[in-house]
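All the exercises in this workshop are built on plain-text protein records. Instead of coordinates, the fold is spelled out as a row of discrete tokens. Once this layout is familiar, the rest of the handout is easier to follow. The record below serves as our worked example for the rest of this section.
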Amino acid sequence: MSAPAGRAVLTMVVDIALPLVVFYGLRAAGTSTYAALVAAAVAPLASAALQLLRDRRLDGMAVFIATTMLLGLAASLVTGGTRFMLAKDGWVTAVGGLWFLASVKVARQPLVYHGARPLLEGRFRSDGTPWEVLWEREPAFRRIWRVSTVIWSVAMLADAAVRVTMAYTLPVDTVPALGGALWPVTLLLLQLVNGAYYEVAGLWRITGGLVREGGRADGSPDMHTRARRASLGSTQGSTGGADMGVTDDFKRKAKEMAEKARAQREAQRAEKAGESAAQPQEDMPNKTQDLRDKPEDK
């Protein structure tokens, strides 16, 4: 597991488990339900404060988390109603769902993009291209993250409805435990739905470099690319006869030059062979003369 993913899991565990530990610990010690709920609402702020101190900044997702926690704390202090305190997480989750939905239209990049980028960019099915570059160049990449953010928004609003219903209908001391257990269920369903959508929409083809400029997320050319290819094919077809004539003329000239060069080489070899044959005949009279001039042995 990568460091960003490990930090994300740790943050989730702290935000979910710590409030439950605080609430049931205080209840076991005899603290009132309302006081235990207020203390449990303050506990998750510690993780947001640690992130701010560690990173020295808050990105879009971190701002969202910190703001929802502050809203939860404010709701805890505004009213003294126990049921409202139990439903607090539901109301805050509903605000978060609306915030996710608004980020699709208002923000330059939606919230899910900011949340996924530290976990996936350059790590999972990536050819190393920065997401900022993909955001600028690939319309399909932008559309995927906007649709994914809408999916998150719908899931959070549904989660909020369930939480509010539990808060006003179930026994007081069982609601925090059920609310804590609901978070993993919601997140697991979100991961499954989003994972299936990413595969169908071609997110990993884009991040892995399998989609080229002028193509679609499924790897096939778009309408403009197909039209451009058809135009090029038509142009090549109209000039095919001329190209064929040029090619044949070039081949014919090349063949003539090769035959001429071969004839020259054969002539040179024949000339050398003739010189070699004439050389012994020229030497023959000289040798005969030498024999005549040589005195006979007595």
About this structure: The chain is about 80% helix and 0% strand. The chain has a mean pLDDT of 74. The radius of gyration is 42 Å. The longest helix spans residues 240-293.
